[in-house]
Amino acid sequence: MTITLALDAMGGDAGPEMVVSGANIALQEAHGVSLRFLFFGQESIIKTELKKFEKLQKISSIIHSDIIITNQIKPAAAVRSGRKSNLGMAIEAVEKGEAQAVISAGNTGAYMALSKIILKMLTGIDRPAIPAILPTLNGKTVVLDLGANIDCTPENLVEFALMGEAFARQLLKIDHPSVGLLNVGSEELKGNATVQTAAHFLRELPDLNFQGFVEGDDITAGKTDVVITDGFSGNIALKAIEGAARLIRHFLKEALSGSLRGKIGYVIAKPAFKALQNRSDPRLYNGAVFLGLKGIAVKSHGGTDAVGFANAIKVAISMVQQNFIRNIEERVALLTSQAETE
Amino acid sequence: MTITLALDAMGGDAGPEMVVSGANIALQEAHGVSLRFLFFGQESIIKTELKKFEKLQKISSIIHSDIIITNQIKPAAAVRSGRKSNLGMAIEAVEKGEAQAVISAGNTGAYMALSKIILKMLTGIDRPAIPAILPTLNGKTVVLDLGANIDCTPENLVEFALMGEAFARQLLKIDHPSVGLLNVGSEELKGNATVQTAAHFLRELPDLNFQGFVEGDDITAGKTDVVITDGFSGNIALKAIEGAARLIRHFLKEALSGSLRGKIGYVIAKPAFKALQNRSDPRLYNGAVFLGLKGIAVKSHGGTDAVGFANAIKVAISMVQQNFIRNIEERVALLTSQAETE
Predict the structure, then answer these.
(1) Measured between CB atoms, which of A182, A191, A247 is closest to B137?
(2) pTM
């Protein structure tokens, strides 16, 4: 089976050059998978970039649009331009079955609003959420929402829990993933009214392995397989973790370069440092799906480079191969039916 | 001048043994500073602990109370027991001038509520805030609030900015500390209504070096000298940073112990790793003042050990030496008068 991917060629800080180079890296590393790419955006620019990669060019098509969704456009304006914009057309390709997934590094708000309208939501889910997969002391943890939903009701948080649980089952291959709700303390009485009410609802769900409140440091400790939070705190927590990782690597570099023994030790242990660097490279964790949609829409970090964008493409490929939407839909349907009969 | 410190002997997960040992470490390391300690709590237990340290015992007094503020007591109940509890008596010692600062590793909510009632708030400040001082790529950054105020209005955030600016001037010795407001993006339109309104107020303050919105990773990048946020997101961000630092150190250990070259490199560069360990030891950053009070009240992390508690004592000593309250009061008075005339 050939997997066809719709790419927003104009999204991301580094634009078409990054997107096309990223597709080329993904193609080179797609061992045994037959790929096709549809690039949506300004034809002349995309054409110039594609010429650099002969093999990629052969399996790619360009769909031109004069209306480009930039980072400055507000979601409401993006929705008005609808299926005529390059991003709207890319999403529509998935809805029509011409592509199996869409990937963009562009305007998050516009991308989400257009995806919601064009691809539609799963039954029982009101708003899409962005999950991130973080490395932890004992494996991986799914955290959501990462910034798609700034103001959340308790009901939104419950939906995130259902989607996050289904996502972790699918992704981490765990039968009964544990779920924690992010808060300022793990005691039952802590936090604001929103998390209190959400926790009350979650405790009532018979088939959900809800472990109560977790704290900021429990994310990377891997206390639960899934961590639920609103998009405001979630975005801040994720970026704080990225920043802290950078700081510790900086401290390490300073410590080693500050003495002769440090320098010699570094040279000898270099492969180990390289392994550490690779393991904590944020580009490897790039590529977040919009959970809750009836189609696969992957969001790449806007500031990423071609390597990071290639990873977002790989995330999309893996989801297509796993029959992602169908599996999530079945699990969410089961959990929401339980939530409603409560 | 002798500095007298009031210690809540019963607070913290490790209790009187930790508090008394911590005081002993602080005493040993207080070169040239004349200290006295007042221990508030159960006399018999404190006495037993004090007997272990002859020199400490000589400069210490025990003030007995049968009413102990534990972690299980709610703030409202603590307030009712008021000045009769061990914690209330310790705070009162500062109000009466018998001690220059109070230090507790106990119940945060009760400690803050009692401090607010007994020590009173500075003019123009409605609620106390807890700042943390974090290491960054280029120095140090003050972040507040760290969990004292879960639900915040725009006015609360503005007060945090005024207090944080005054604190950073005092602590970091910077003439015009830059101030950022934590948000999910640095663009002016991002975020919820609370941060939007607070940013609007802050932009109008003529004497405040307000730099607009900052993101989670800007904290440890040191983008601004002060980062303002509500206690919910602030607590999560701080703990997320602690957790991420732990994860990277764990990855480093795994990477080095996974190969012979890694192990040899580690042995040779050991002093450098030791320096890294020391620099990122969270115990060294223990001890947060309640900002906005008319007296010095320092909160130690509840889970700390004697070394961490000694550091909280050192924070208190340094504040007494710097005439902290008077300086903060003057600066906050100047800034709030500008805020009011706007």
Answers:
(1) A247
(2) 0.86
